[in-house]
Amino acid sequence: MKVIVCGAGQVGSNIARQLARENNDVTLIDRSAELVRKIGDEIDVRAMVGHASHPEVLERAGAYDADMIIAVTYSDEVNMVACQIAHSIFDVPKKVARIRAQQYLDPLWAHLFGRENLPIDVIISPEVEVAQAIERRLKVPGAIDTVSFADGLVQVIGVRLDESCPIVNTPLKQLTELFPDLNVIVVAIYRDGKMIVPSSNDQMFPGDEVYFAADSQHVARAMPLFGHEEQEARSVVVIGGGNIGLHLAQYVETHMRNLSLKLVETDLKRAEDIMEGLERTVVLHGSGLDPDLLHEANVGRAETVVALTNDDQVNILSSLLAKGQGCSTAITLINNPVFGNLVTSLGIDVVVDPRATTVSEILRHIRRGRIRGLHSFRDGAAEVVEGEALETSLLVGKPLRDIKLPPGTIIGAVVRGDKVEIPRGGSVINPDDRVIILGLRDAIHKVEEMFSVSLEFF
């Protein structure tokens, strides 16, 4: 597949890196010669300096025979114009644009994006994606990552284990024997910097990050087995009233009405503006680094603090201050991946990486075959994919014990109608079943092919 990526920031470079790993033909465009040189040295892509919405730049990038353009520059307008040019002049089949400004995404203007107006096939809104990722974590206290599949019937949840976990040092095959009526399966373990798909003889150890697939109705029963019995938050303090903080507050007011929310915003005008758009949220003007203001927000009695400013250092320090005053859980937005790898040792419970959430959403639309959902874990070390089983698929019609799955893959759940089955050796997949599969980085192309028409891949 030939792809043009416009914008060499964290999202653009990460998408380019991911696609290049999978042997796609990638051209990356950015106005910064320094960024282009850096990316060109690090990744096997063609990197060029230029303005992403200029026709002659897109022509030099190979737009006439490109399969897709992904516009993720910092400018919404450049992204939209790049897609328009790609469509009108070069007839690029698929166009993806990142759009940050919520004014463009107001339902009132939904007709703006279409082949007759702005021909963008997929719109990515990072602020909305990140807010939704935080909402999911609030609903499953103790999870470091959680994502829903099959219209919410299945969840894949990441947890960090400690010595209190009752099932550490237990072979995974014994879990089925101990809890036969629990619809849960461990699909991956992140240990010592490496993601593995465990066998039935493997064990989990303290310090592991474990990812399991579960029937959504069984999640509350499963979490204590992994050492997490945290209560769902009743009081939350949000630090940062930008688009993410505002979207989160609006969601909480609408869908989590038993939750008390306070929001801290350092800019007075912004604080006044967001106060007008909220009903039950208490908005405080000041800095998340001010201990007195945190005390006024009663952060010590809150179950969760969510730090969402655009400054990583402020997010980290305000989270630690809140925990120092007695807050149970810190969910912290981190843009720089270097910080993300360090802060959990400082006591921060959950790191939210906006780059990773945006990349997952873009990849969902890049993957070929009958892919209905996708989430990337640990900087692309593994992906969980929800696909629709085709009648011709080698997955269909035989007990799973008789199917040789590619190395580095594991089936986490099978959904038929509204019924969830956690797969066992005797499970049989039928045509049109929705299948949730985890694949390690080197096996992702095999997972794609499982849901494609061409099936000569084993």
Structural notes for this entry:
- 45% of the residues are buried.
- The longest helix is centred in the N-terminal third of the chain and has 14 residues, at 126-139.
- The chain has 14 helices and 22 strands.
- It has a six-stranded parallel β-sheet, sandwiched between helices. The chain has a six-stranded parallel β-sheet with strand order 14-13-12-15-16-17, sandwiched between helices.
- It folds into four domains: 2-124, 3-Layer(aba) Sandwich (Rossmann fold); 130-225, Regulator of K+ conductance, C-terminal domain (Alpha-Beta Plaits, 2-Layer Sandwich), CATH 3.30.70.1450; 235-327, NAD(P)-binding Rossmann-like Domain (Rossmann fold, 3-Layer(aba) Sandwich); 357-450, Regulator of K+ conductance, C-terminal domain (Alpha-Beta Plaits, 2-Layer Sandwich).
- Helix 1 packs across helix 13.
- Strand 18 (371-377) and strand 19 form a beta hairpin.
- It is of the alpha/beta class and 458 residues long.
Largest sheet, if any?
Answer: 6 strands, parallel
Query: What percent of residues adopt helix (DSSP H or I)?
Result: 25-40%
Assign the CATH topology of the largest domain: Rossmann fold
Number of domains: 4
Beta fraction: 25-35%
Average residue-wise pLDDT = 90
In terms of topology, how is this protein built?
Blueprint lengths: L1 E5 L3 H12 L3 E6 L2 H10 L3 E4 L5 H6 L7 E4 L4 H13 L5 E5 L23 E3 L1 H14 L3 E7 L4 E7 L11 H7 L5 E8 L2 E3 L12 E7 L3 H7 L9 E5 L3 H13 L4 E6 L2 H9 L5 E4 L5 H6 L7 E4 L4 H13 L4 E5 L3 H4 L9 E3 L1 H13 L4 E7 L4 E7 L20 E8 L2 E3 L12 E7 L3 H7 L8
Parallel strand pairs: 1-2, 1-4, 2-3, 4-5, 5-6, 12-13, 12-15, 13-14, 15-16, 16-17
Antiparallel strand pairs: 7-8, 8-11, 9-10, 9-11, 18-19, 19-22, 20-21, 20-22
